[in-house]
Amino acid sequence: MKRFRWKIILFIVLTGFVLWAQEEVRMDLQVNLFLKILKYDRNITQRGADGLKLGVLYNPDNKKSVRAKQDFEKKFNSLDDKSVKDIQVILIPIKGSTELSKSIKSYGINLLYIAPGFDSELSKILDTCSKNKILTMTGVSTYLDKGIAVGLGVKDGKPEIIINTTVSKSVGADFSSNILKLARVIK
Question: Is CATH 3.30.70.1350 the right assignment for the domain spanning 23-186?
Answer without folding.
Answer: no
